[in-house]
Amino acid sequence: MWGSNARNAHPIFFKHLLKGVRNGAKLFVVDPRRSESAMFADLWLGIDVGTDIALANTVAREIIESGLAHEGFIENATVDFEEFKASVADWTLERGAEVTGVPADAIKELAHAYASASTAQLCWTLGITEHHNATDNVLSLINLSLLTGHIGRYGSGLVPVRGQNNVQGGGDMGALPDKLPGFQDLQDDQLRGKFEEVWGMPIPAKAGMHLSLQFEAMERGELRSVYIIGENPARSEADSARARQLLSGLDTLIVQDIYMTETASLADVVFPATAAWSESEGTVTNSERRVQRVRAAVRPPDGAKSDIDILGLLASGLGAQWRDLSAEEWWDELRSLSPIHFGMTYERLEAERGLQWPCRTLEDPGSLFLHERFWAEPREGPPAPFHPVVHAPPVDELTDEFPTRLTTGRHLESFNTGAQTSHFDAPSRPGAGIDLSPQDADELGVTTGQRVRISSRRGSIEAAVTVVATQRLGLAFMAFHYPEVVDVNVVTIDAWDPKSGTAEFKATAVRLEKL
Amino acid sequence: MEHTMTATPSDLERGAVDRVCGPSPKPDGRTSRLGFHQAQQLRHLLLPALWALQDGVGGVSEGGLAYVSDRLLVPPAEAYGVATFYSLLLVDEVKERTTYVCDDIVCRRTEGFSLGDDETASPCLGQCDRAPARLQMTAGEVALSITGLQLPMNALAEGFPRQITGLIGVIDPESLESYEDAGGFAALATARGWGADWVIQQVEQSGLTGRGGAAFPTGLKWKLVSEEAGPRHLVCNADESEPGTFKDRYLMEGDPFSVIESVALAAFATGSAHAFIYVRGEYPLATARLQHAIEQSAHHLDGVTIELRRGAGAYICGEETALFNSIEGFRGEPRQKPPYPTVSGLFGRPTAVNNVETLAHVLRIVRDGADAYVASPTRLFSLSGDVGTPGVVEAPVGASVEDVIAAAGGVVGELSAILIGGAAGSFAAPDVLSLSLSNDAARERDVSLGSGVIIPLNTTTDFPDLVSRIAAFFRDESCGQCVPCRVGTIRQEELVHRARSGSVMELDLLTELQQVMADASICGLGHTATNAVRSALVLGLLGGADA
Question: Which of A202, A340, A346, A426 is the 20 to 30 Å CA partner of A441?
Answer without folding.
Answer: A426
